[in-house]
């Protein structure tokens, strides 16, 4: 049993075979999916898709790239969406200073607002951070995000960020990046994360793992993330893909309060 904790199942790249793609994942042992909102429209799509399947859950929120588009009515809309029992998290939210599609100040202001809304809704937060580690950690601390908890999704930071995240009580989620040949430093970090703080994801359709690089990613491939995680932690007694599956599934159910 596996849980892919970060997918974008509503992405247009799945329009021709979404049902078949979901079936492939289920046949590969993926029992649950969380599909992620990046703005109001994709949050609505995520909830609608989750409502169609008892094994799919949703998150809602606005990605840092998109926060410049937030309108006055959006937070009220998110409050309404959060009334669905299928909404288990708020995100992905955070800071991304690599592209700055939204200005850094606007990102920081909206990040604070969204943490505050997540605290109001009592939902754990899904964090996206890129080239913004210091500000991300500071805002999480200042806005008391540890009260609701959450996950640094698609973790690709350094050991210092991993420690900050763990000290906040957050989980670290590893993606197909863990399988990339040059990701040696990331694999070294993955060895050190407590087993009860690990999650796995695909971030599909992005970040396709080895051996499918160059192809569209999909949730069935989260099995390769689990396998790689077991491999890098092979020096632990009894470690196996099955143990990784059990631990990460247990962790996902705890964080997101899944049935």
From TrEMBL:
PROSITE patterns: TATD_1. A divalent metal cation 1 binds at residues 6, 8, 92, 203. It comes from the Bacteria. Gene3D superfamilies: Metal-dependent hydrolases. One of its GO terms (molecular function) is DNA nuclease activity. Belongs to the metallo-dependent hydrolases superfamily. TatD-type hydrolase family. This is Uncharacterized deoxyribonuclease YabD. It comes from Nitrospira lenta.
């Amino acid at each position: 049993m596996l849980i892919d904790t970060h997918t974008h199942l509503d992405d247009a790249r799945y329009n021709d075979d979404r049902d078949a793609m979901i079936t492939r994942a289920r046949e590969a042992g993926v029992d649950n999916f969380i599909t992620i909102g990046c703005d109001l429209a994709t949050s609505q799509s995520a909830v609608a898709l989750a409502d169609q399947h008892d094994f799919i859950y949703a998150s809602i929120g606005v990605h840092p790239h998109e926060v410049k588009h937030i309108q006055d009515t959006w937070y009220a809309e998110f409050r309404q969406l959060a009334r669905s029992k299928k909404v288990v998290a708020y995100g992905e939210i955070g800071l991304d200073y690599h592209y700055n599609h939204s200005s850094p100040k606007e990102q920081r202001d909206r990040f604070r607002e969204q943490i505050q809304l997540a605290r109001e809704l009592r939902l754990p937060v899904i964090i996206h951070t890129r080239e913004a580690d210091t500000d991300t950690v500071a805002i999480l601390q200042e806005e008391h995000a540890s009260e609701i908890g959450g996950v640094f999704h698609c973790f690709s930071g350094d050991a210092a960020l991993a420690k900050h995240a763990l000290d906040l009580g957050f989980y670290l989620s590893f993606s197909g990046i863990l399988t990339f040949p040059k990701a040696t430093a990331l694999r070294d970090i993955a060895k050190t994360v407590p087993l009860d703080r690990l999650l796995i994801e695909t971030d599909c359709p992005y970040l396709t793992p080895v051996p499918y690089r160059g192809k569209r990613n999909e949730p069935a491939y989260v099995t390769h993330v689990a396998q790689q995680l077991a491999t890098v932690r092979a020096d632990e007694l009894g470690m196996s893909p099955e143990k990784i599956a059990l631990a990460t599934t247990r962790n996902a159910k705890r964080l997101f309060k899944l049935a």
